UniProtKB/TrEMBL annotation:
High-level lineage: Bacteria, Pseudomonadati, Acidobacteriota, Terriglobia, Terriglobales
Transmembrane segments: 34-51, 58-78, 90-111, 123-144, 189-206, 231-256, 262-284, 347-366, 386-412
Organism: Candidatus Sulfotelmatobacter kueseliae
Cross-referenced InterPro entries: Na-dicarboxylate_symporter, Na-dicarboxylate_symporter_CS, Na:dicarbo_symporter_sf
Annotated protein name in UniProt: Proton/sodium-glutamate symport protein
Coiled coil stretches, renumbered: none
Length: 453
């Protein structure tokens, strides 16, 4: 019954889409016919939604429903904005405590200088170089495709911070907090990150018996914020549906074409990253290519199907041991990579941030884009495992750069399709990092030396 309801919904949506295109491009069709087909298709979506009760499924249903409401009843749709703003405020409350807790606990728990050896230094350097390349590719891709240009998000539809030109010295000063409470209240994400990094380093230098209570507190806070995020995300269908309805009602259905262009841009950029960065790294470090591909097919497939890096982690670790990476290397590099080497997610964040600016008609200078990349490089660390982590990071970053935050919710409508791709690249990148570090340490086991699992 589940598969039949899904097939029915997809079929009806396809028919409705084809009729709309025919009516717009070839010959006008009766408005009543198009209206009926839209809402019959949405009714079928709701039917299959009761059989497939997943958050992602209901977000997609909300997206289509919101687009239909915005198209058919724009006056009503505009009044739904308050729902999306409530959801926006709930999301914003997550950002500062989540970043503080995850960064401090991550640094204080894993950055004891007495325990950081050669392998740790190599891993950190590798992670930062590769994720920086991912950010750069995402930045280049969205500037080339200009997927957000023409979306015409009205200025009144976005909660924006005042944008002002700053000198170089003012930009540097703006990175460092003067009052951390004010930084949190004003949503200055980069200042919160800088404070958290320094606080985490200081805590790591404190004696173990003195450090443990604060470390336990930040770990508990991080876990609590993860749960808080999960609770807030239950309201995502309402927030996304209202945001889509308002946007389509006030700007027209053209925004959906921009989303399709963004999706194609992301997939193209991820392919460039895989073949232009990961493949040369594998070749330069003499990774056994065939064995590696055979080993990663299963965990990458799990990641693509579930959109969860964590679901693929056990099989990925087992696969890396099977092809010859020693267990201590796997146990150190793979979990660390899940915090510091999310290649697909970081590429997406740079791409999506510029898309938001383009959709709002805001021009960011090259210098501001570079600062945005640095901010994303810092804020994207330590939040692996958070439900819809990219949403939280993206909201905090675009808000602190004076960009509108409402277009972010429009991205949620296609987030599942984007998440499948970026999560797969996350897993692939971490598997490769594990083998590369093992090769650098000269302890990669080949042939008969590899353990038989």
């Amino acid at each position: 019954m589940k598969s039949k309801s899904l097939l029915l919904a997809v079929t009806l949506l396809s028919i409705a889409a084809v009729l709309s295109i025919v009516s717009r491009e070839l010959m006008p069709l009766p408005a009543r016919l198009l209206f009926s087909m839209r809402w019959i298709a949405i009714g079928a979506l709701f039917l299959q939604g009761f059989y497939r009760r997943t958050l992602t499924n209901w977000i997609l249903i909300a997206m289509f429903t919101g687009a239909a409401i915005g198209h058919d009843w724009p006056g009503i749709a505009i009044n739904l904005r308050v729902i999306s703003l409530v959801f926006l405020r709930l999301i914003k409350t997550i950002i500062a405590p989540l970043l503080f807790a995850t960064l401090v606990s991550g640094i204080a728990a894993h950055s004891d200088l007495k325990k950081v050896g050669r392998m740790g230094v190599k891993a950190i350097i590798y992670f930062e170089v590769v994720t920086t390349l991912a950010l750069a590719i995402g930045l280049a891709a969205i500037n080339i495709s200009r997927a957000g240009v023409g979306a015409s998000i009205p200025a009144a539809s976005a909660e924006t911070l005042p944008v002002q030109k700053m000198t170089f010295s003012e930009t540097i000063l703006h990175i460092f907090p003067e009052n951390i409470a004010r930084s949190v209240a004003e949503g200055q994400v980069l200042q919160v990150v800088v404070f958290s990094l320094l606080f985490g380093i200081a805590l790591a230098l404190v004696r173990e018996e003195r450090r443990r209570p604060l470390l336990n507190l930040t770990e508990s806070l991080a876990e609590t914020m993860f749960k808080f995020t999960n609770i807030v995300m239950y309201f995502a269908p309402l927030g996304v549906g209202a945001a889509i309805a308002y946007t389509v009602g006030s700007t027209g259905a053209g925004i959906l074409l921009n989303l399709a262009k963004l999706l194609l841009t992301l997939y193209a950029a991820l392919l460039v990253f895989v073949f232009g960065v990961l493949l040369p790294i594998a070749w330069l470090t003499r990774v056994p290519f065939r064995k590696f591909i055979a080993a990663v097919i299963e965990p990458v497939s799990i990641a693509f199907g579930t959109s969860s890096s964590e679901a693929a982690l056990p099989r990925a670790m087992e696969a890396m041991e099977r092809i010859g990476v020693p267990r201590p290397v796997v146990a150190f590099v793979m979990p660390a990579g899940y915090s510091f080497n999310l290649d697909g997610s970081t590429l997406y964040l740079s791409l999506a941030s510029i898309f938001v600016a383009q959709a709002a008609g805001i021009h960011l200078s090259f210098g501001r884009q570079l600062l945005l990349v640095v901010t994303l490089m810092l804020t994207s660390k330590g939040v692996a495992g958070v439900s819809r982590a990219a949403l939280v990071i993206l909201l905090g970053t675009v808000g602190s750069f004076g960009l509108p935050t409402e277009p972010v919710f429009i991205l949620l409508g296609i987030d599942q399709l984007m998440d499948m791709a970026r999560t797969s690249v996350n897993v692939l990148g971490n598997c490769l990092a594990t083998v590369v570090i093992s090769r650098w340490e000269h302890d990669f086991q080949t042939g008969s030396e590899a353990p038989d699992l």
